Amino acid sequence: MTTVLDAAGQFSDWDPLAQYPIDPPGARDPYPRLAECRRSKPIATRNARDEHGNIVDAFEVYRYDDVAAVMRDNTTFSSESIRADMAPVMGEHVLVGMDEPDHKRLRSLVQFPFRPKSIAHWEDELVRPVVDGMIDRFVDRGHAELVQEFTYTYPVQVIAVILGLPHEDHLQFHQWANAITNFAANPKTGFIAARELRAYFADVVEDRRKHPRDDIVTEIAVAEIDGERISDEETFSFLQLLLPAGAETTYRATGNFLFGLLSNPDQLDAIRADRSLMTQAVEESIRWGPPLLITSRIATKDTEIAGTPVPAGSQVIANVGSANRDETRWERADEFDIFRESVPMISFGVGVHMCLGMHLARMEMRTAVNRLLDRCPSLRFDAEAIERDDVHIHGETFRSPTAIPVLFNPSGSPPQAPAPTALGRQSHTERLASVT
Amino acid sequence: MTLRIEVDAEKCMGGGNCEFWAPKTFEMGDDNISHVIDPDGDPEEKIVLAAQGCPTQAIAVWRGEERIA
Ligand code: HEM
Ligand code: SF4
């Protein structure tokens, strides 16, 4: 598959279903199956791939309490399965695949810039200009396809700006991100991209050590806690991890959020009129439409889940998508309802690996949807395109809309801030490169 | 009644989810651990949600003698 990012930041020969590389084509709606599992067999065996790509039997858990118990008990359930899976691309020291005490040491070294207080100033300075720059490209048109033109690209752009990467590198960064996101569909390209990205980060880190700046790379590269410092290998792995962990998740989650709102015009109207609903709406959307439904662990000893023996060495899949629809915790759990009373959901995980980027993700989603509503009056689904293209939310591992065709009144208010970092500003036709 | 709120510094993994649920009650310190800045900072139900949402069950909340989260 060749995907070319053109000057307008769109993807030519975009294949919507290529967004779900590892799912069978029938992965349209896993939720009825998951509901049945929660009711009748709370732990089941299913096929999974081990780190060599071999099909193995794994246990999958579905109920909220069981999923939370597995993710909380990080001594019995190790993240080694994730490390083994990611190491060829991300290196040996990939945070999400580490166990204690190594995990805690590394996490405390990188966590600082992602605290709620630390990210607060990024909203106006960095995220809103990125979002506005993307909206600029279609705001006068009155219609758009928001997956290709917006949700797919803005989180990568946000990562590029929070890392302080120079503008002229953004197009290249997008191409690496694209190749790494499509790793499962095209491992060879993904692998090459990961290697190039690593070499690139090595230069960036070296530069920041010599010329410190007010950006995340500097903060992490010079971080020191109790005399501990982050190694170069750990730094590169962490920066690389931000693409699959931070960009792909946020793109899909924003798509699901928009899809939930656009499918429920009364809720969309309510939030348009009262933006203070945004925070709870983001929470509900991440519960109802998590971008990633599963994560995995390895049992370190013989144990038991929901009365079923699980031998040491078994792979255990925690289905957070299912846990979030647990009817013992939420009424009408399958419904998207921004007005429901909030109780903590589990899409960001739980336990020591709980998402490092959750505050950033929430802020990005809030900002993205706020700006779309501000600048695209009467934003609504293009019902004809929905029907014609059979548009729906797809996937059982990664899950997000196949497309988000929208119409709006093309008289958006001008952006509040210029968009100096917009990709379109510095990409010329002759610089179009393709990722094969 | 003012709640008694305790954060177990050993268990806290520093992700700041409590600060999301109850931002006037909890704040992440430079030591990478959550601190109670004002036990009356947020409505009681928000503080209970913060405790329930803690990924490592590091937060305990008492009303008088009764542990409520
Ligand atoms: C809605 C968007 C997001 C969702 C649903 C999400 C979900 C998750 C989940 C479920 C985990 C735990 C995985 C496990 O325990 O096996 C996790 C960990 C992680 N996430 Fe996110 N994430 C999102 C956005 C982000 C963003 C924007 C960043 C970028 C900073 C990010 C960075 C990370 C990192 C670095 C970890 C590993 C943390 C650790 O192992 O200690 N995530 N995420
Ligand atoms: S939610 Fe729990 S683990 Fe996270 S910062 Fe607060 S007390 Fe610490």
Name the features.
heterodimer, A: 436 residues, alpha+beta, Cytochrome p450, 5-stranded mixed sheet, 3-stranded antiparallel sheet, 18 helices, B: 69 residues, Alpha-Beta Plaits, two-stranded antiparallel ribbon, globular, binds protoporphyrin IX containing FE, binds iron/sulfur cluster
H and E string of chain B: EHEEHEE
Rg calc of chain B: 11 Å
Instruction: Sketch the major β-sheet of chain A.
Output: 5 strands, mixed
DSSP strand tally of chain A: 17
Measured by DSSP, the beta-strand proportion of chain A falls in 5-15%
Largest sheet: spatial strand order of chain B: 1-4-5
Which outline of chain A best applies?
globular
Outline of chain B:
globular
Word description of this protein:
The complex is a heterodimer of chains A (436) and B (69). By secondary structure, chain A is an alpha+beta fold. Chain A has one domain (43-435): Cytochrome p450 (Orthogonal Bundle). Chain A has 18 helices and 17 strands. Chain A has helices at residues 31-40, 64-72, 80-90, 102-110, 116-120, 122-136, 146-151, 154-162, 170-181, 187-210, 216-221, 232-263, 265-273, 278-288, 320-323, 358-375, 383-388, 423-426; strands at 3-5, 11-12, 43-49, 55-61, 77-78, 143-145, 224-225, 228-229, 294-299, 303-305, 308-310, 315-319, 380-381, 393-394, 400-401, 405-407, 434-435. A 5-stranded mixed β-sheet of chain A has the order 3-4-12-9-5, with helices on both faces. A 3-stranded antiparallel β-sheet of chain A has the order 2-1-17, with helices on one face. In chain A, strand 1 (3-5) and strand 2 (11-12) form a beta hairpin. Chain A is globular. With 69 residues, chain B is an alpha+beta fold. Chain B is 20% helix and 25% strand. Chain B is built from 2 helices and 5 strands; from the N terminus they run E-H-E-E-H-E-E. Chain B has helices at residues 17-21, 44-52; strands spanning 4-7, 26-28, 34-36, 59-63, 66-67. Chain B has a 3-stranded antiparallel β-sheet, with helices on one face. Chain B is globular and about 30 Å long. In chain B, 38% of the residues are buried. The mean pLDDT of chain B is 94. The chains are: A alpha+beta (436), B alpha+beta (69). Chain A binds chain B through residues 72, 104, 107-108, 111-112, 115-117, 225, 342-344, 348-352, 354-356, 358-359, 362, and chain B through 13-17, 19-21, 23, 27-28, 30, 32, 49, 52-53, 55-57. The structure holds protoporphyrin IX containing FE and iron/sulfur cluster.
